[in-house]
Write the structure tokens for this entry.
Amino acid sequence: MTYPTYYESFDYSAMLDDYPLGETFMQRYQGMSREALKAIQNQRFMALIDKAWNIPFYRRLWSNAGVQPADIQSIDDITKLPTYSKSDIMQSVADYPPIGDFNGFEHLPPEQRPPVVFHTTSGTTGTPQPIVFGAKGREVQALLVARGYRFMGLKPAATVQSCYGHGMINGGHYIREAVTRYTNALFLSAGTGIETRSLQQVNLMKTFGTNVLVGFADYINKLASVAREEGLVPGKDIKIDMIIGHLGMETREALSEAWGGAELYDWYGVADTGCIAAEGPDHNGLYVWEDAQYLELLDVDTNEPVADGEKGNMVVTCLYKDDVYPVIRFNTCDVTEAIPGDNPFNLPFKRIKGFLGRSDNMVKLRGINIYPHGIGGMLAEHAAFAGEYFCVAERDSNGRDEMTVIAEVKAPSAAHDDLTRQFAEILKRKIGIEVGVQLVGEGGTAAFTEIDKRQKPLRLKDSRFD
């Protein structure tokens, strides 16, 4: 029996031409009109639709919504299609174990199945989700990360140390693929603190001259403290030029200072979609890779489009994933807002603020929507805040909902009473209502956030509906 190898299963040269990076990317898109970009999007969208109608998951989803193939004639018709979320994917997995019926190759005989890459999500919001990638989709996914890194200003022959996890989780693997295949950097796949102890990580930085750190901001911040405990001075003994991570609403200034003034860059993506947007060297929002990703921002409650400057769920269509597991109107349940106006690079792409919280992790208190992931950014204005926190939502015996923020501070316990009052005032001013505050010393939230065990620390325990 014969079947194609990984790189024989798609046209690699055409992929590089369709999704440029580096100088070629700028040459292709600088000065392009929104109309010209939309023509590219439309062509890729229609190819995606043709593929998806042959996949049971989409045929069922769309038919149940009353949509027929003739209803979709262009990308302007995308709103006729229903959105779906992780719960729909997990229902498919439950009904058609073990990988669901959304991938598009399940019906093929073994000798005709294309080469695939299999991973799962981290399981942060529940049971880990199986994710299968086709060769073309996998390579574009990696390329878009590298496009972001190079757009940010990654220097030739940099030394990049990654704190993303490996194992079954997708993240660390495809970041490695992005850097090793689409940059000329030396890549150190250190992983999480469980895979490579934090002390060993900082010694790797010193030994190999790491100048770029990539990963989740929380753990990267912790590594700065570990380095100082080891007698290594960030900015002197370990010279980090760039930190590329998922910054969201966390404090940027404190993380930069912790690493001796390193320049910070944010980017956004989820396991199903790959890299959606990346911060540019102008540090004015994240540029959406709209040649590959069609992003809609929809109201959390009504599912209607929101205006620029208003928060909405990111609903994503991956224009490049026309091989395995097409992604069409996937509701990430991650919240952001669009940034209006032109950009200094004259690119046709829209910009967003990045990750501002999860709508399915939102706490509604007395009519106010609170996103736990945004609390750290609020408290960062106080110098005593140590960067780590955890939120607890509870319902009292009278049916009243309350939330308490447990925050780490760099101050002796004798000062906690006064600081508690100050932190409570900050949160009331920024949120609009009073929430409880409990202060602990550095490391005091680790048992709740599980920062030493997880790529993405936990930020909320919601016991209101237990």
In short: The radius of gyration is 23 Å.
